[in-house]
Amino acid sequence: MIHSLFLINCSGDIFLEKHWKSVVSQSVCDYFFEAQEKAVDVENVPPVISTPHHYLISIYRDKIFFVSVIQTEVPPLFVIEFLHRVADTFQDYFGECSETAIKDNVVIVYELLEEMLDNGFPLATESNILKELIKPPTILRSVVNSITGSSNVGETLPTGQLSNIPWRRAGVKYTNNEAYFDVIEEIDAIIDKSGSTVFAEIQGVIDSCIKLSGMPDLSLSFMNPRLLDDVSFHPCIRFKRWESERVLSFIPPDGNFRLISYRVSSQNLVAIPVYVKHMISFKENSSSGRFDVTIGPKQNMGKTVEGVVMTVHMPKAVLNMNLTASQGSYTFDPVTKVLTWDVGKITPQKLPNLKGIVNLQSGAPKPEENPSLNIQFKIQQLAISGLKVNRLDMYGEKYKPFKGVKYLTKAGKFQVRT
Amino acid sequence: MSTSQAYNEEKGGSSSLGEPEYGHDPASGGIFSSDYKRHDDLKEMLDSNKDSLKLEAMKRIVAMIARGKNASDLFPAVVKNVACKNIEVKKLVYVYLVRYAEEQQDLALLSISTFQRGLKDPNQLIRASALRVLSSIRVPIIVPIMMLAIKEAASDMSPYVRKTAAHAIPKLYSLDSDQKDQLIEVIEKLLADKTTLVAGSVVMAFEEVCPERIDLIHKNYRKLCNLLIDVEEWGQVVIINMLTRYARTQFLSPNQNESLLEENAEKAFYGSDEEDAKDDKTETASLVKRKPYVMDPDHRLLLRNTKPLLQSRNAAVVMAVAQLYFHLAPKAEVGVIAKALVRLLRSHSEVQYVVLQNVATMSIKRRGMFEPYLKSFYIRSTDPTQIKILKLEVLTNLANETNISTILREFQTYIRSMDKDFVAATIQAIGRCATNIGKVRDTCLNGLVQLLSNRDELVVAESVVVIKKLLQMQPSQHSEIIKHMAKLTDNIQVPMARASILWLIGEYCEHVPKIAPDVLRKMAKSFTNEEDIVKLQVINLAAKLYLTNSKQSKLLTQYVLNLAKYDQNYDIRDRARFIRQLIVPTEKSGALNKYAKKLFLAQKPAPILESSFKDRDHFQLGSLSHLLNAKAVGYQELPDWPDEAPDPSVRNVEVPEWTKCTSREKRKEKVEKPFYSDSEGESGPTESADSEPESVSESESESGSGTESGSGSGSEEEEEESGDQSEEEEKEKKKKKKKKEKELPRKASLESMGSSPSEEEEEGKKAKKKKPQHDRKGGSESSSEEGSVSESSSSESDSGSDAEDSQLETETKRRKMPPSSKPAPKAAKKGTKEISLLDLDDFTPPPPLPTSSSSLVSSSLVTDLEGLTLIDTSLASTVISPVFSSVKTYELLHRMTGEGLSVEYYFSRQPFAPDPHMVAVQIQFSNNTDSEVKNVRISEPKLLSGMRVQEFKEIESLAPGETTSVVMGIDFCDSTQAANFQLCTHTRQFYGAIQPPVGELMAPVFMSENEFKKEQGKLTGMSEITEKLTLPETCQSDHTIVQRVTSAANVSRVPCGADNEYRFAAKTVTSGSLVLITLEKKEGALAQLTVNSEKMVIGTMLVKDIIQALTQ
Prior knowledge:
The complex is a heterodimer of chains A (418) and B (1112). Chain A has three domains: 2-148, Beta-Lactamase (2-Layer Sandwich), CATH 3.30.450; 178-270 and 382-416, Mu homology domain, subdomain B (Immunoglobulin-like); 274-380, Immunoglobulin-like, CATH 2.60.40. Helix content of chain A is 17%, strand content 42%. Chain A has seven helices and 23 strands. Chain A has a nine-stranded mixed sheet with strand order 11-13-9-8-23-21-16-19-18, with no helix packed on it. In chain A, strands 2-1-5-4-3 form a five-stranded antiparallel sheet. Chain B has 1112 residues and is of the alpha+beta class. Chain B is built from 48 helices and 15 strands. In chain B, strands 10, 11, 12, 13, 14 and 15 form a six-stranded antiparallel sheet that branches. The two termini of chain B are 58 Å apart. Chains A and B meet through strand 2, strand 4, helix 2, helix 3 and helix 4 of A and helix 1, helix 3, helix 5, helix 7 and helix 9 of B.
């Protein structure tokens, strides 16, 4: 299946290669570079490239291209999903999935890749198993290792691989037994010029951090499970139980993981917590334009909207912007033409406003379209869909765990067309 | 390079954190140090005995590999550490080994034995990892070893090892595709496995090795369906894809009736009514013919069991299920996948890309499915262009009369996007909507015409092209638009757009009779500067005008044609010539001239704007081939539904187990259960594999017991009289028991385990001389006897009680326990292993002990042992000529290079008295000079790890012409690597190397036939190597065969009842592993050679040597 993997940074250096079958020369990446050149933008490099002898399937994550070499028919999503899993694992191990992190930990990276694939077929991709095999580097451990000469490779054999619950490590022990659930909902929306909603939906996830000893068997129930329309599960969840009782019943992995992701049924009207008033215009035959944007709270269920950030990709003709922000600070990058306005909290008494002059390239025709505004925001302690966790029960273990649920609403792909 | 250097500097600074300083590795191009030097210090570190240094070195080497630098010259230094105790070093060595083994095949072989040892480890994880690395070494010579290892592992107790075996199958197949048939057998066996761990991997192997053998799936189909939900996610993808193909060959189309109806519906929308009527008739006819469709329950099972997987977090799994539903489900049920696919659109952009491609294909055929999710395909300005274009494609496919207004409004906003490629695609999309939906054609056209005044030329050009296509549908009503477009020729520069306008004017010149000649005039002016495609259209326009309005355009046409006549492009010249002949009437011009008008101004059908995704669904969705719209290497065609359903009973399995444990719901139970299900899957194969040879040996041992006692006569029997009586009694007891047990074959096989130790004990008695351990332990012979009895046959003592039933019970328990509980099999395994170890150790005289008495004993034992072998060979009907005569002499030092001193050596095949683990080498020095050679000795042996040399006593002087011989011992560690050393005289040093043929690495062992068979029974599977050969005429007699074999290898003959069989036995000198050779003559000159040995490398080489000796 997956023959080889090349990691390539933005400047086109191949800084890591790994082969699971016979060695494929680096020159195969030339086809990739060719496609990259053609695509202009990194995002537009086609994920699948066909070359005379191989197929290249690549992903772009954190400024790194993961380019895998395939020789025979294989579902492209299989490879893409796997590559993302690799990137996730690096993120998990090193805190970030960057070129420096990978270079600094090249041996661990290599050991991980060796364990994750066998002859190009995924072998161990569960982070719990991998962590048993290869311990992630921590500062403490690296100091200890340098003194004692011990290694990052687990001495014990990964028994988890053999069990029927491969996602959970055996013999977990904590002094404080805790289980936290973060219900995070994102609002995806497209708001049109006039302020009416073209499209809006709520996507949610429940991220868990479970630190429980032994083999706890948890079941999580909701007050209003009918809200959840389309759900995807971590493999630990018993599907039948959900089907029949709408209860999430599972033996959790150890540590952080995503329990479910869901979409709220589209019948429900989605509350849009903010509104944007905008006035962006470019004058004909003059090298300037006006820019005036105000953000205000809309249906925010009585909570404060915070962490508001607006990003705008201005047209190419824009040279510079002279703006004043009534609140927060703004930056404009004249190279990428991206305007970022970090607003912060919205107080209804004094609505944040950003206005001023846009300088255009002299002589260039006026941009015929207005840029769309991308809005980020956060609302703490609120699940905008109204989803509520009812209770969490634990079976199989004697102790009483500490339980916590947190709600958060965020803007997902929230776009205002102007 | 420059960045990596910079990085190295930076790294050098921060390396104090205790991270591996791989930044310092040689290949990073340090200016001051050469590569060689750098590698030298790595070698030094690897040779050191500190694990931390080794680890450091390995880390640096792996870092080099990671960056694609060549580190192959370190191979010997690295491979030495393959048996290192430190796990991390070992792992890194594996990484290195797998990377470079292909390039350094000979050296890689050195490591094989380590893995072979690992394959027998009691720990399943070690067995698995040994198999994993062994099978990853791409060295063709070990193919037979890999094959054996895979076969063995396929019936391993542990599902994890079996999984690894499944992984190894494609590896071996890619190395040597000739093994296909054997591999298919293994696949077949593993497919029957009932554990989820194995299922995914074996189907993967199936897909790579024999995807065409769909018949192997029948019996496992239901099991796979039921296990599916518990298989790990990657395996699920592979299984689902395979089952899709399977279902297409085995079931009937669920849509046979509906598909016809559906076509009808489609046609009602767009087709003409006449056609429909016609079709209706034929269809109703065919409908009548068909039987009502009933879905095969197995088909239903597949659909039901895959559906929950739409909820998987893994996009590949969701896609796999989606394509399965698309290809297999009744139309009414396909809808469920839409929701899941739409969910994937929230994922990474690469996932979106692939999913949208597939949605685009699906949405053509099943538009209704995605209609509720129309808005999810709306485009954001932040989407990458390739995603935008795919979404646009989907939106266009979804457009119908009801939603077109919303879609068009959405398109309206897209047209103002900054992304021009996207805008162009949007215009195309509008064009497609307009052609497909008559209602909005005018609206679209108006919109597009407005775009003609857009400032961006690309937009205008694209609009022109699309408008041209639309106008073709109803040109008469749109002369205004054509006029408008004619004006554009002054400004628009994009060739394609200009060409389109010209074509339009030419085609509809009757609608714009005034403007057309003027446009031609302008174009004639600029003709020379136009692009080729525009020039062709100018000629076209000229020709058409000439035909319709020759009065105004005659001269212009002539002018244009003249210009074209001398154009650089031959197409244009050709066209000009052709048109001139066609339209300008001359005397010569033939009949065609009359028809020129018909030719040029015929009604042309409007083009159909189609999706580029149309008909892509003949590729299996979700596949690479579908994405590329071209058949990828190794793509398996998705077969069409069969007309008649194949026999569904092929999938029947005797025990319909699949009714159990169908769901995740029951997973909890299964946590405890798997051991049972394991054992069910397990017991079949293991039992058959294990019990077969045992039961054979059992029955044979019985029949052979008579001969044994006969042949056992002679010197030994007298020595062991004391123990004989009790033994005899026991034997009798046993015989009785056996007779009874023979009634039940099952019992016999059960008994075999119990009886074998006792058998052994008998042998032990006979060869008790060779059991000095017991001697030492017990002090006297009789006590050793007792010791061995109690030691080796605990089961026997159990069965001492008369109640046979109870014994049987315990036996059966013992047989059944291994799979059901983990420790038990291990214990059992250990037990057998220990026994075999005992055996082997017993034959090898122990190293000399400090106490003089015991060392005396052992040395005398050695001579005894030799005596025994001699006796044994003489017992055989033919007399083997003394081994020494046939021995080959090798040259160590030639007379010329040795400056008069010549040295030869041969393997004396005598036990080397000071150290039984060494091979004795007789070295003969002859002094051909005319002066004395003094102080001949060996120095500086350069040996591979583990090898040892016992030097001979220094020869003080060797007179001229004199010859003397000495014996030295070398412990080759059971490998055929040469021992290198310096041969020193008082004046010179010579380089010498002694390389043993594999046959000399062993010492003969005496065995009885029974014992032989029993040992052979233990060394089956992996350790058995069989080869067929044809004996030449010169080598047909018993005598020659025996002689040739014994000359090729230091083995002793084992007496044999059958006269067409020859058996030989030996043990390796260092480790004392048994080597058993069987040569079986078949009819004609054919023969089969079998070598059983734990040391597979030795076995393989020995087979080669013996065959060579026999056939030369």
